[in-house]
Design a protein that fits this description.
With 310 residues, the protein is α/β, with parallel strands linked by helices. It has two domains: 107 residues; 178 residues, Periplasmic binding protein-like II (D-Maltodextrin-Binding Protein, domain 2, 3-Layer(aba) Sandwich), CATH 3.40.190. Helix content is 33%, strand content 18%. The chain is built from eleven helices and eleven strands. Strands 7-6-8-4-11 form a five-stranded mixed sheet. The protein has a three-stranded parallel sheet with strand order 1-2-3. Helix 2 crosses helix 4. The chain starts with 10 loop residues before the first strand and ends in a 16-residue tail after the last helix.
Length: 310
């Protein structure tokens, strides 16, 4: 962040500061002497936290996050196991309890799946990763959508809860026959054994920077920026989510809003390399252009456009 345009000693508010990229950003900014305030949706637990109930007025996509299903199966190499969203939902719903279940065997004719209990591992804390994961399961499995739904936390029917990506991966690595979900970046950095997933185009794909970015190609063209899970592209990774910037459409403090927009304009222009170094995935150029062009809709009390960019 040493080339950042932020003035020294800035007060910076971060949503998602408990995640992998958010915590890394918070540490970096604090080390440079900035005051970091963390937005949380629960009761604050420290002086640098503020409870946040967002009033949705302006939401822009800023970066992509992949979520990977990770397993601990003897004799199964990373990327060998094949799953569908419907089967994955049934595992997390407690309907499929054995690795040699017919549904899994039919998807994996080349693998020898043992008569072994499936150890389901999920997040114990609320998280954006869970929101993306359950959003995908809700699209892939109608029964899951009706009975369990989606959110940063849900009423899990089964499973052991781990705190953060670290807690989930620790359980999966210790428990033979287990399955969990973590951010793709975390799975890659920690060399966890992941599964393939069948996407909406009917192709089995591996999680990667290219498959996560493929999920955003053409996404949001109609101005509807719902999570880009289960996209139709032939190479799309189905459990892909986005991090969003929230800006008030009617800016009460236009000068501050303009500085925020300038920062994110700089981030779009200069942040791709940093994102890739953290194993996160930059937005496709086509989506960035859509987002930046929408900034003309942010205005002050007189109706003047706050900032249109370069």
């Amino acid at each position: 962040m040493s080339d950042s345009p932020l003035p020294p000693g800035s007060r910076i508010v971060i949503a998602g500061a408990s995640g992998l990229i958010g915590s890394a950003l918070a540490r970096s900014l604090s080390a440079e002497g900035h005051e970091v305030v963390r937005l949380v949706r629960r009761e604050p637990r420290s002086p640098d936290e503020i409870r946040w109930d967002p009033q949705r007025q302006r939401i822009d996509a800023v970066g992509l996050i992949g979520c990977a299903a990770v397993v601990n199966l003897a004799g199964v190499k990373p990327g060998e196991l094949k799953l569908t969203g419907a089967v994955l939902a049934d595992i997390y719903a407690g309907k499929i309890t054995k690795w040699n279940d017919k549904a899994l065997v039919e998807l994996n004719p080349g693998l020898k799946l043992a008569d072994q209990d499936i150890g389901v591992v999920r997040r114990a804390d609320g998280s954006g990763t869970t929101a993306i994961f359950t959003n995908y399961l809700s699209k892939a499995n109608a029964d899951w959508k009706q009975k369990i739904g989606e959110g940063t936390t849900v009423q899990w029917p089964v499973g052991l809860g781990g705190k953060g990506n670290e807690g989930v991966s620790a359980f999966v690595q210790r428990l033979p026959g287990s399955i969990g979900y973590v951010e793709y970046a975390y799975a890659k950095q920690n060399k966890l054994a992941h599964a393939q997933l069948k996407n909406a185009a009917g192709n089995f794909v591996q999680p990667s920077e290219s498959s996560v970015q493929a999920a955003a190609s053409g996404w949001g063209g109609d101005g509807n920026y719902e999570q880009p899970t289960d996209q139709k592209g032939k190479d799309s990774w189905p459990i892909t989510g986005a991090t969003f910037i929230l800006i008030y459409r009617n800016a009460e403090k236009p000068q501050q809003t303009a500085e925020v927009m300038k920062f994110f304009n700089w981030a779009y222009a200069n942040g791709d390399k940093m994102a890739l170094e953290l194993d996160y995935v930059p937005m496709p150029d086509s989506v960035v252009k859509q987002v930046v062009s929408s900034w003309s809709g942010v205005k002050d009390s007189s109706g003047k456009i706050v900032w249109q960019g370069k």
